[in-house]
Amino acid sequence: MAWNEKVYEPIAYSSINNVCLCVPHFGAVQLEWVESTYGPLRFIPQPDFVKTNRLSRGIQNLDTERNFLVKAALDDKTVSHILFLDSDCIAEGDPNQYLRNLLSINIPIISGLYRARKSKGEHPYCMFMKHPQPKTGKWEWTDGFVAIQSWTGNFIEADVIGLGFCLIKREVFETVPYPWFVWDSEPSEDFRFCILAAEFGFKTKVFTECKFSHAGAMKIRSEGAIHALDV
User: Fold this and answer.
1) Domain count, the chain
2) pLDDT tens-digit profile of 109-149?
3) 133: exposed, middle or buried (C-beta count within 10 Å: 0-12, 13-18, 19+)?
């Protein structure tokens, strides 16, 4: 499917932020996610910021879906931020307060904290640095990443993250050229977005007080515990 290219010009924002919730997903979603995370974000209004909503239906590749959601969000000239929310990231606290926290930090790309699912059964935090000793003398996609496992404070800079709960200012997408997301080789479309954004001066950071569990057949909580059933 070919897109008609469009240039998104910077706009003057109102004094209140308008966050567009962008949810790429495929298939069914879990009731726990709807009850604890999506429902409060979607249906409970907040006094200090506005929320709008965009959903995809899982009929395209993930990079295509993310590009589609961003384009749809930017067509609304009142939108100041885009919040990417994955349907397997479950808030461990109030998701609206988490969103408020990220808005108050007021930087272009800021994420909450959750763990990744790796093919070998490992579950590192979903924030990574470029491998410190690249094979070729300069960093390339194939050299991989090292997971950030410890830190001081609650505010971390990472080279790449997942976009499970990530707030991105409109200006990032107005500055970084389209397509913002591409997944035609390793690594994933979200990692490549972080690297591309960094080339245009946008660093990626994680606020570790906004904590999420990574859900699936087993739920991986932010501290690393794995749950088959929460009671």
Assistant:
1) 1
2) 999 999 997 766 779 999 999 876 666 655 555 567 888 99
3) exposed
